[in-house]
Amino acid sequence: xxxxxxxxxxxxxxxxxxxxxxxxxxxxxxxxxxxxxxxxxxxxxxxxxxxxxxxxxxxxxxxxxxxxxxxxxxxxxxxxxxxxxxxxxxxxxxxxxxxxxxxxxxxxxxxxxxxxxxxxxxxxxxxxxxxxxxxxx
Length: 137
Fold this sequence. Notes:
Blueprint: H1 3-17, H2 24-29, H3 32-38, E1 44-46, H4 48-59, H5 65-77, E2 93-95, H6 100-111, H7 123-132
Parallel strand pairs: 1-2
Helix pairs in contact: 1-3, 4-7, 5-6
């Protein structure tokens, strides 16, 4: 991978981790090995603010449930599911220590969007998740 492509991919991963779910297609287009190479020297931390931004943007309609679910799946697992056969070395994404429990809850709920059971996250639940993160709606 060229250095400029690696830099662009690292920037896209950083944007996704900052709560910009709209950047996910660039990340999804890359092979997992390319992702690992692009962020090899980076500390990957999902913060309360990034999760809150994603929740707010989802509630405002900036992206649909499928995008919110894909974002949550990626930040939860460190890879884009269903793309390759065989073992995958996921990105090691840490959660902000002070808010880890609330981040896990919010990401987990977003990752369930589209499922047969509990497959929706409405405005009221977004408010509850934001409150758990200690931020205003």
